[in-house]
Design goal:
single chain; 104 residues; mainly alpha; 4 helices; 81% helix
Length: 104
């Protein structure tokens, strides 16, 4: 169950990071509220997951999910550039996440 909570924390990291782009310096109310709520949920879920999971594994997986998620949103939603090298880097992050999960 704590692994699912950690995954959800990573997804909320993507939510707050993406919504932060729309806040325009926290001058837009709705994206600002989504950013703050997403941040709080992400940290609360991370802290719950850390009750049973190791710190190093939890934090690395949480940031990895956030990184991969925000990169994919950037590519598909914001039409940010993507190359084979970007793909290789994302695969390496994913392999690290899977490796940490398997070793813990």
């Amino acid at each position: 169950m704590h692994w699912l909570i950690l995954f959800a924390a990573g997804l909320f990291e993507v939510v707050w990071a993406v919504s932060l782009k729309f806040t325009e310096g926290f001058t837009k109310l709705l994206p600002s509220v989504v950013t703050v709520v997403g941040t709080i949920l992400s940290f609360v879920l991370l802290s719950i997951a850390m009750k049973k999971l190791p710190l190093s594994v939890s934090y690395a997986i949480w940031t990895g999910i956030g990184t991969i998620g925000t990169v994919l949103v950037g590519i598909f939603y914001f039409q940010e550039s993507f190359s084979i090298f970007h793909g290789i880097c994302l695969v390496m992050i994913l392999c690290g996440i899977i490796g940490l999960r398997l070793l813990s």
